[in-house]
TrEMBL record:
Taxonomic source organism: Coilia grayii
Residue ranges of coiled coil: none
Superkingdom per UniProt: Eukaryota
Name of this chain's protein: Cadherin-4
Domain Cadherin residues, every copy: 7-40, 41-114
Cell location: Cell membrane
Keywords: Calcium, Cell adhesion, Cell membrane, Glycoprotein, Membrane, Metal-binding, Repeat, Transmembrane
Topology with respect to the bilayer: Single-pass type I membrane protein
Keyword GTP-binding included in the entry's annotation: no
Length: 146
């Protein structure tokens, strides 16, 4: 039996307290509560992609962990890109919501026009990535690009 599963022995008794059957094992399963938020493994992720890459080219993977039971919705982590920098209405990248893999979705990435994805200026918001668990009352962690 797992160390965190309490084990209890029980038996039936009659009205006088005399045991009327052999003891049986009772197993008490403690159900995970969604009391942890997922956290990105790193505060900074660096990815690169050659200019002119075809859509579907792998750029990098972001990863997070949730201390809740990963066999339940409470501990299953999903990913989203909240914003990109520089801002582009026809997104340049997408993220696999289960794996955290970031790939290109647009052709025409040009280093001379956009030397870095984080070519950030104070007039533009920084890129933001979100991981959430899928439990009831989900928890989240936010990663902001530098």
């Amino acid at each position: 039996m797992a160390n965190n599963t309490p084990e209890v022995k029980a038996h039936a008794v009659d009205m006088n307290g005399i045991q009327v059957e052999s003891p049986i094992d009772l197993y008490i399963y403690v159900i995970d509560m969604n009391d942890n938020r997922p956290e990105f493994h790193n505060q900074v992720y660096n990815g690169s992609v050659p200019e002119g890459s075809k859509p579907g080219t792998h750029v990098m993977r972001v990863t997070a962990h949730d201390a809740d039971d990963d066999t339940t919705a409470n501990g299953i982590v999903q990913y989203r890109i909240l914003s990109e920098t520089p801002h582009n209405p026809s997104h340049m990248f997408t993220i696999n919501r289960e794996t955290g893999d970031i790939v290109t979705v647009a052709a025409g990435l040009d280093r001379e026009n956009k030397p870095t994805l984080n070519n950030w200026s104070p007039t533009e918001p920084k890129p933001r990535y979100l991981c959430t668990d899928t439990g009831n009352g989900p928890h989240a962690d936010l990663l902001t690009g530098l």
